[in-house]
Amino acid sequence: MNEKQNRFYGSGGDLSTQLSPWQARAQGFDPAISIFRLERELRFRSDIAGGDLIVPVGFLSDLASIPRVAWSLGYDPDCNEMELASWHHDWLYSHVGKVPVRTLRPDTRPLTMMVSLTRKQCDQILCVEGMAELGAKRWQRNVVYILLRLFGRSSFNSAPSNVRWGPK
Prior knowledge:
- This protein has 6 helices and 8 strands; from the N terminus they run E-E-H-E-E-E-E-H-H-E-E-H-H-H.
- It has 168 residues and is of the alpha+beta class.
- The protein has one domain.
- Helix 4 runs antiparallel to helix 5 (138-151).
């Protein structure tokens, strides 16, 4: 990868809209949880995945399932050091790491292939690649990585969105 080229590409400006409480409730979500809908596809070049990860338009995310106590450390769901990478991490987790990856062949034709990433690889894509690209300090990336390794297992599933964020 060219060092000067950003891993996040082709996705400037506002990328998402937040569902209103009544929209969330109508879709079976807990209105107390902030849910966002991606309005433009989001691309990320990942060495770990072996190509480009593309989160599709319409994907729903809570951006980062972070306990409110961590918000005081600067880890609110839409903090600059995490937001774009959180879209990819949520997409990877919701597909249990089984996602299409786009690569460029030597003749420059794009090739899409399915890959199976482990939960650990998905966490590394967020913390090692994504957050680093967004300017997060090493200690910030390490804290998020440790928390994901300790508490992220229950979210690594393909349950429908209304089950993941539905009324408890």
